[in-house]
């Protein structure tokens, strides 16, 4: 069974990761790549300034780029769209595809907190996908829109989900984020060499709200935000890929570090083509300096979460977690939601 | 009035900063530089692999290095010693100097939490210096030993001291520390290029305990640790100098961000030669991406603290702070304690 | 004697360096700062995203930015203009100022090789300034236009000038250039972290031609290019400031490394306010790993040249040289030409 | 057909690459790992601080490390040894293995220029292997010692070999070398962040002599060094892996850039398991900014050479070349020589 898919905004940094990840995908077949009007008509090779460290797949290199509109992809006969458009563009363009009946798995940040849009990590809250029924009722769409969270949120939430059994009450998290999270030209070299920047616009609010939606309960009609207090502080540092996060957690219970490690290690993954066998790899006491971005970001092909440094504190516990921000945190997240949409019969 | 001073361990990274800071000092005159036995007898230029970005002062370059022992400096007629010895060496060697009657201002980490050793930042807790009387009673020393805290602790504690009026109860702090904090060879390039390391041995415990001693109350006989809970998480990142810290604070009161900023800005500095006019520089809402290590580490010649990013959170407030780790956080901290010792009549 | 000066393109990276260098200048008084139309009317503080590591001088911060046109600066009563406009803009705008009678010392790359435009480094070829007479004859300008060379050319040419006494015949040079040479946003962090880029558009041709003009003989009517063959290869590397260059030289004579070092060390500087006492600092055999960008770029306040690693080769000799690319290589170069213009009576 | 192999010095940086490359090798089976006496008896996992970005192969992790001596490996029944010992150790230890009859493919720098030791790159000068006969005659060894060149030499020599048909006369080469070339702790972070170091001890002489031996003619009794003049200048820059080199070449003929590109592209590879299908990948005029270390170092699994930037100069031509310094430039080079030794019947 093959599913024909398209990528909206295929030439950018996340778009290139989609193409890399779709190469040799067991069920998805890339049938359309879109970009802005001035790239339409070019081959993908001409339109994209390819930056990924594997070559452009030959067949994609020669594909014709079409404009990002339902008309543009009308001939491609696709069943599922992945969107990595800038959020400003996405908020204008995505509705047109939904009205035209397309199923869209989107990495763009618009509408993530809308009450009728599922914000989903397949291993964490697949049941939220049922919000699509609410969405269709309210908006009258034939299509369906599902979002994945922000890259910094995705890195942390699987660990919080694994630990929620201990009665998660408060979270203080600090991020050390890679430059690729800002896109190819987002951080200049003069800003970041021998430096760190303790501010990423809007990022802290995303972590604080998206995490509570992801961990929230689906009632059948809506998602009730998780009750934990979450406070985030976000930094950009001179790493290329891989967001590292330091998390302080407080629980109703008093779990030991060993119990926390075990809960993360044994947290169940999903049965989807791109899900890792073990979702969260956990380093023990004997390797306190892990995870590290350069050494651990490719765990499970960049689709896994790596944790470590679990210790008690005066207020509860702390640990570190890490994920590849443009794979698990962006293109891979949308891809996985696409696989879930197929699995659940929405495609 | 001139005070003759010596540097114990003068050839290392912190020793070199001492020499840079003592050049043109208004009252201190460098009269002795010590190192291990195999450097004794060489000129300073020969013995030190000079790495500071200003040239070796000419007179220091030609000074003879002597062995780190009371005999070694016997002819130098010094009144005050600065110590930047590795803590393992310092714990062996410092007592000999104290027994010989020297006043020692030490950056080494040994004995910082000893109940009869003052751990002092002159602008924060100068009254703790009176522990010297207890120390002399207990140890029978003619000399006096004062310590400054760890570089990561120094960066944060002035801001906490400024905010303590609001009833400081809990602190969660994450550090982004520069490689120079580990000494010249402490972090290899292969470890840190395109990477971050979420572990610095012993650093978190230092921040958690030293901060409570610095903020503690001196009763006349001892220092009562401050009652706040402090939890720290420490990271090494690819910056050369300047420790950046993200701090989450919770108070008995509910101060506004504006009140927090004002409390930091108006916190009084000390009237010592190396103290900044304004101890804590605070960036406002209009510059949320400051402080940054490369842009702000030289504030007040590297002796100031720079803060910013003050905001409310779901649990209290958060802000960022920064200091130059080898100036304010090491050599400059000991130097300032030396100035306080002179001011208070211990030298 | 005070000279009122203006900066064309004052808000960019080189413009900011001009402002830093003009602060406390003994004879120049900053009287006008220009930028594009959308910045006109703002204060300098509002218009510039200040990135230099010293604060904006207070008086400059509150200056009103005017449009880059003769009308814009008409009220400022300036005697000398420094230009750091992008070359595309400069080639359009500079002629208007020259027709209006202004003397312009320009860092922009347009017209550097024009036969009636002096390309000058004051310590190397001050006599080329007399081309201004040719320029005035040919163009009918009351003003005068002088250019300084490209940053990578400036780094090398003083050393070649010092060695030309040995009969310079061939030069092969490779550069390791800092990111600041491309302007604040010229090199993205994703391009350069853990990377090097062996191409800088147009840079190699600039080095090959400008160097021969600078070393050429002024006949009274024109500059005859120096006869040496010059081949350059240019690279961008992850350094912030300071261009390092590896130079292979071949001579008619067979000078020893000692003779080469001595010729560079004893090369005469100029008697201008911003010229270093010793133009070229030379490291000897005992420090073969110098010059290095981070350790040596601030020699003589960034206005000096630093050389080292002089050795014989199978084909002649080789050495390394280094200069601060945005000080000696850009703003400082124009400033120095301005000082020469004053000295020679053109202002 | 399986060949049992051992690694001398298996725990270091190059040793780890050997292990990575031998995992899944079609014919070599790892049977012994040696290290210094204090590691002997430990498992490989315990003895090695594993730094490669793929996990330790499970079977290797549990192998017992033995001492680096013929006695140490006596029970392992190996047919071929790879050596990545420090050259000081290798010059003491390698002869013992040769006297004991082992065939050793060594990456260590000792003896590379010895007249009876083949210095070999299988695609370039496989016929030099016949020096083994001379070696056996002179030294009375049953075993055989073959060396591969230095990492910076290997990067350049395949391109020179491809271009030698045009009458190679002179070479000026500048290197931009990655920190991994100095071993795990060879370059500290404080030395190299925001910096470059224009000196690597002994490296320039290695490039100048080894390249002429590799390109030299084997007469049946000796290798006559190639007659070209070679001058090298070597730099360390802040890259992790991948040596980039800028090469200026002069020929008896006057080949066009197109002819140079074609000669490199069509240069024949070897028919060995680890040789790339196309030895030299060449970028054309349309991608003048390639090769780049981060983007191109993994070409052909790190075993290929990548060239680009071919242009005419005033003196001949120039181009850039790049190879992965710890794969093609070290462990992979020895491995390939091992494959050649098997192919040629020495094992």
TrEMBL record, chains A, B, C, D:
GO function terms (MF aspect): aspartate-semialdehyde dehydrogenase activity
GO terms classed as biological process: methionine biosynthetic process; threonine biosynthetic process
Keywords assigned: NADP, Oxidoreductase
Any one Pfam family match given in the protein's UniProt record, by short name: Semialdhyde_dh
Semialdehyde dehydrogenase NAD-binding domain: residues covered: 4-132
EC code(s) of this entry: 1.2.1.11
Gene3D superfamilies assigned: Dihydrodipicolinate Reductase, domain 2, NAD(P)-binding Rossmann-like Domain
Similarity remark: Belongs to the aspartate-semialdehyde dehydrogenase family.
Record's protein name: Aspartate-semialdehyde dehydrogenase
Species: Halorubrum tibetense
């Amino acid at each position: 069974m093959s599913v024909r898919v398209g990528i909206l905004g295929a030439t950018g940094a996340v778009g290139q990761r989609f193409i890399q990840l779709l190469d040799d995908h067991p069920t998805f077949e890339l049938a359309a790549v879109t970009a802005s009007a001035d790239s339409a008509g070019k081959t993908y090779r001409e339109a994209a300034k390819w930056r990924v460290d594997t070559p452009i797949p030959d067949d994609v290199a020669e594909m014709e780029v079409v404009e990002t509109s339902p008309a543009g992809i009308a001939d491609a006969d696709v069943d599922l769209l992945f969107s990595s458009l800038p959020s400003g563009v996405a908020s204008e363009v995505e509705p047109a595809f939904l009205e035209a009946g397309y199923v869209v798995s989107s990495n763009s940040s618009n509408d993530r907190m809308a009450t009728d849009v599922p914000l989903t990590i397949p291993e964490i809250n697949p049941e939220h996908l049922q919000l699509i029924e609410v969405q269709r009722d309210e908006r009258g769409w034939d299509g369906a829109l599902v979002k994945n969270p922000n890259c910094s949120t995705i890195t942390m939430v699987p660990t919080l989900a694994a630990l929620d059994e201990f009665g998660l009450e408060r979270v203080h998290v600090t991020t050390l984020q890679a430059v690729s999270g800002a896109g190819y030209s987002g951080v200049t070299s003069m800003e970041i060499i021998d430096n760190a920047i303790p501010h990423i616009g809007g990022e802290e609010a995303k972590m604080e709200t998206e995490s509570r939606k992801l961990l929230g309960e689906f009632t059948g009609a809506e998602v009730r935000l998780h009750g934990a207090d979450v406070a985030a502080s976000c930094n950009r540092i001179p790493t290329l890929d891989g967001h590292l996060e330091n998390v302080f957690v407080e629980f109703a219970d008093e779990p030991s570090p060993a119990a926390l490690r075990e809960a993360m290690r044994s947290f169940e993954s999903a049965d989807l083509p791109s899900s890792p066998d073990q979702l969260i790899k956990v380093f023990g006491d004997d390797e306190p300096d892990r995870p590290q971005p350069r050494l651990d970001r490719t765990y499970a092909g960049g689709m896994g979460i790596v944790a470590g440094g679990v210790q008690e504190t005066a207020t509860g516990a702390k640990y570190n977690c890490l994920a590849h921000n443009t794979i698990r945190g962006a293109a891979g997240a949308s891809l996985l939601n696409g696989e879930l949409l197929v699995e659940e019969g929405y495609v």
